[in-house]
């Protein structure tokens, strides 16, 4: 019987003004003949896209996924996003995540079916890849990846808040809320802001945000 690695990939943090874009890959090794792209594992029954879950439910799912599946997580820093653009940064994250999985679990591209959300794509070596519109709503492994990425990035932004409390990262996670935009106007951009995303927001010329 031939076994295949089914890998769901999703990202979070594409739109925020600050913080990284974070991507997760969640993988399951299964008999090739027994798995469709819409039903990867009984242990994911009832899973939903991370955006449709409360923080408490996301944490419950995150623990379950990490216990039962292979996974990898990577983030791309705002400086890279500014230098390359958000879509290239997302593709860099996909490549890094797959390299982590390959190294940790000895995966080979020809034994992988890679299921990606939205506009994401994998390196060409992964011939068995499929980009699925609204994949985080339709494919359990992609939904699992969205949860792992979301929990990881939110925790990072809470830690960042402790260093830069003036911006309120613990509340908005870097997204462009009115409160966040006002903080930028008052304090300027931190090293964790995406300058290319914040060009229209007025701020002081030489601010010095307080780093704890």
TrEMBL record:
It catalyses: Endonucleolytic cleavage to 5'-phosphomonoester. GO terms for biological process: DNA replication, removal of RNA primer; mismatch repair. GO terms for cellular component: cytoplasm; ribonuclease H2 complex. It is an enzyme of class 3 (hydrolase). Its cofactor is Mg(2+); Mn(2+). It is found in: Cytoplasm. The keyword Hydrolase applies. Its EC number is 3.1.26.4. GO terms for molecular function: metal ion binding; RNA binding; RNA-DNA hybrid ribonuclease activity. InterPro entries: RNase_HII, RNase_HII/HIII, RNase_HII/HIII_dom, RNaseH-like_sf, RNaseH_sf. It comes from the Bacteria. Keywords: Cytoplasm, Endonuclease, Hydrolase, Manganese, Metal-binding, Nuclease. A divalent metal cation binds at residues 10-11, 117. Endonuclease that specifically degrades the RNA of RNA-DNA hybrids. Belongs to the RNase HII family. This is Ribonuclease. It comes from Candidatus Ryanbacteria bacterium RIFCSPHIGHO2_01_FULL_48_27.
């Amino acid at each position: 019987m031939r076994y295949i690695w089914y890998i769901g990939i999703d990202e979070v943090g594409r739109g925020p003004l600050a913080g990284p874009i974070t991507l997760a890959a969640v993988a399951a090794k299964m008999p090739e003949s027994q798995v469709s792209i819409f039903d990867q594992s009984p242990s994911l029954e009832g899973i939903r896209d991370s955006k449709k879950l409360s923080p408490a439910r996301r944490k419950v799912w995150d623990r379950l996924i990490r216990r039962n599946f292979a996974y990898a997580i990577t983030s791309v820093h705002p400086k890279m996003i500014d230098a390359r653009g958000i879509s290239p940064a997302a593709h860099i994250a996909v490549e890094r995540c797959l390299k982590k999985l390959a190294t940790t679990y000895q995966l080979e591209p020809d034994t992988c079916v890679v299921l990606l959300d939205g506009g994401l794509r994998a390196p060409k070596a992964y011939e068995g890849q499929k980009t699925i519109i609204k994949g985080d709503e339709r494919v359990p492994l992609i939904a699992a990846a969205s949860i792992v990425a979301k929990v990881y990035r939110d925790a990072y932004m809470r830690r960042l808040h402790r260093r830069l409390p003036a911006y309120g990262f613990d509340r908005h996670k870097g997204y462009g809320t009115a409160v966040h935009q006002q903080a930028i106007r008052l304090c300027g951009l931190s090293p964790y802001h995406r300058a290319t995303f914040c060009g229209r927001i007025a701020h002081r010329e030489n601010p010095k945000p307080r780093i704890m």
